[in-house]
Amino acid sequence: MMKKKASCTCPPVINKQLLPCKAFYFLFMAGVASLLPYLTVYMKHIGLTASESAIIYGVMPFLGFLIRPIWGVIADKFNKHKIVLIVCALFAGTFHVTCLFVPHVEPELVPVHVFFHANSSSTTVSKCQLYGKNVEDLDLHGKCEESVLKENTLKATRLCNLTCTVLDTLMNDGSETSLQFCNSTANYCLELFDLNLVNVEDVSLELIFLNSTSDKISVLPWKDCPQYSIESFRANNTYFDVFKVQNELNMKCQIQYCNKNDSQNEVINDSKISSHDLTFGLFLVLFFIGQTFYMPCLSINDAITYGILGDEGSKWGRTRMFGTIGFATFAVISGLFMDSFSESESQPDFSPAFYLHGGMLLLAAISSKFMHIAEDVHCSQMMKNLSLLFKDTEICLFLFVMLILGIYAGVLMSFLFWYLGELCSPKLLMGLTLLVECVAETPMLYFAGFIIKKVGHIPCLHVTLLAYALRFGAYSFLKEPWLVLLIEPLHGITYGLLFSAATEYTDIIAPPGMSATLQGLMAGIHWGMGLGIGSLVAGQLYHAYGGVVMFRCFAFSSLIVLVIVWPLEKFVVRKKHVKKEHTEEEEGMVDSCNNNERKN
User: Which one of 291, 345, 377, 475 is most buried, by most CB atoms within 10 A?
Assistant: First the structure.
């Protein structure tokens, strides 16, 4: 009787040399998720404008495009990859945390959005849109901060500048309104013909009390939204005290440069003007230095990981996956901590995000101390024969598409959370948004190979353009911030499918021996130039027109790029491939004939 052979299942072999690399990915990306996605919201909190935040956030990708190779050359030159990684992680965390201590812009210097209402009996200013179109839909008692009495009270009401644009000038009967500035003492009026941009200076506001019974005032008694009457103002170097309108007039305004002290006669003094410049300049410098050390960390760890894997470089994704896990986990934890430590929505506490970031990068630096450095680790590779790449039409078209997609990525990275903040999103929701992105990204990376085989690489890029158009369009119609979680699964396409297709396609179209060069160029154009341009352009659009217009502009642009790129790829690139295939077939036939002649 034959004995059964005992079967044993061997436990999976763990590469212990990779454990510090996995720990670094997890801890470093946990630190990234704790702070960097929320940074534009913090810039808004300290008083910086959308355009200023775009400048700060927009120059960093360009910096990374230059800094990464320099740090790589230093690490390769002296063969000190571990020391460079430790130093970069420590100093990145340190300088990023110091940004928390940058002084805020003084409240009176921060532009405040208000609504101007004028009729035959009164002229009022309020932070809530209490009059005009869609007033019946106004919910002052919702979750938004505009419903809080403290938030709706203007902190300064003397010697302000008011810049307004008209909301509606037509009445129900179709008649158009007009506006006059009048001085009741001198019996003099100045008529305004262009209501698209109204500027007045030295505005003095007076709080309207709810129990007021004066015939001069006729206002709606919204107890949670104080209203202010305009007592006096200056225009064209002339002082006025009355706005006269033919019909009801509603305008959206920005009020700024107010003095808290009524006794002051100057609009604003030099020290207050400089405080805004100090905040912007100091934050820019500290963040710039922090990013100088932050940029090379992942690239150096990638090189160390590839050096340990050797011929098994295809398994790099299994190690890098720990970074995704750390990012998804701490994006939620950081948002939850900020909400928990904040006294109210009007006084958010960002310090947990900064301290988590610094702590995680400190632990990442400690983990890198235990890394095994292979002898053949190389972080830098010189960009040789770039002219060969730019002479290829297919490569140029591909790099153009990756630049455009990088611009769109920059828009989302810089202003999605800023936009959600204006919709009164809690920080926890912002963290959940990042979690949904990571969850959507994982299965797409897993099935991307199957999808690419079915539809091809170029169609995947086209699908990504369409997905961005859908994302941007959907954001522009958001009213309830929590609905953003239904939009974020598209990140699986705009990141997971995109980079699976782009990385493989880059390897296919690269000339012999230039695959790594083209990969680096593609990444630099997308994450460097594209991200920077996107942030800068989006900041200007957001500052001028708001988030809704900005997102719709980029949604339309994505469709336009798709309409332009699709025929170029179809009739130029594919035509070139057909010619190349015919040439190769003819050369093959000639070689076959020559071989037959030799045999005969």
Answer: 475
Residue 176 near residue 169, CB atoms below 8 Å: yes
Task: Please count the other Cβ atoms lying within 10 Å of the Cβ belonging to residue 409.
Answer: 21
- Asked whether the beta carbons of 536 and 54 are under 8 A apart, the reply is yes
Total count of residues recorded for the chain: 600
Q: Considering Cα of 208, then 212, then 218, then 223, what sign does the dihedral take?
A: positive
CA atoms within 13 A on the CB side of 343: 2
Q: Which two tokens stand for residue 330?
A: 């701490």
Assigned token pair, 489:
């699964």
The contacts of residue 148 (CB under 8 Å, 6+ apart) are 224, 346
> Diameter of the chain by CA atoms?
123
3-state secondary structure of 482: helix
Identify the CA nearest to 240 among candidates 178, 166, 187, 164: 187
Report whether 455 contacts 534 (CB < 8 A).
no
Give the pLDDT mean for 77-106: 89
Question: What secondary structure does DSSP assign to 226-270, as a single string?
Answer: -EEEEEEEEETTEEE-EEEESS-EEEEEEEE--BS-TT--SS--H
CA–CA gap between residue 53 and residue 49 (Å, rounded): 6
| pLDDT of 168 over the 70 cut | no
Distance separating alpha carbons of residues 324 and 22, to the nearest angstrom: 11
Q: Which residues contact 175 (CB under 8 A, 6 or more apart)?
A: 246, 247
> What Cα–Cα distance (Å) separates residue 582 from each residue in 61, 81, 575, 578, 579?
42, 49, 11, 6, 5
Nearest C-alpha neighbor of 149 from the set 391, 344, 380, 431: 344
**Edge-first strand listing for the sheet containing 242-245:** 188-192, 179-183, 242-245
Residues 75/67, Cβ–Cβ less than 8 Å: no
For residues 482 and 423, what is the distance between their CA atoms, to the nearest angstrom? 10
**Lowest-pLDDT choice from 68-72, 161-165, 447-451:** 68-72
Write out the two tokens for 119.
């009729």
Cα–Cα distances (Å) from 111 to 47, 124, 202, 539, in that order, read 9, 18, 15, 16
Residue pair 402/530 in contact (Cβ under 8 Å)? The answer is yes
Distance CA 553, CA 473 (A): 9
Asked if 249 and 177 count as a contact pair (C-beta separation under 8 A), the reply is yes
- How does pLDDT run across 389-433, given as a tens digit for each residue? 777 888 889 999 999 999 999 999 888 988 888 787 888 888 899
The pair of structure tokens assigned to 558 is 């994505």
Between the alpha carbon of residue 139 and those of residues 130, 143, 213, 298, the distances in Å are 10, 9, 26, 47
Q: Which two tokens stand for residue 15?
A: 């590469």
Per-position DSSP letters for 8-76, written without gaps between them: -PPPPPP-GGGHHHHHHHHHHHHHHHHHGGGHHHHHHHTT--HHHHHHHHHHHHHHHHHHHHHHHHHHH
Average pLDDT over residues 324-335: 86
CB 255 within 8 A of CB 160: yes
Task: Pull the structure tokens for residue 535.
Answer: 């942030």
- Closest of 43, 36, 33 to residue 431, by C-alpha: 33
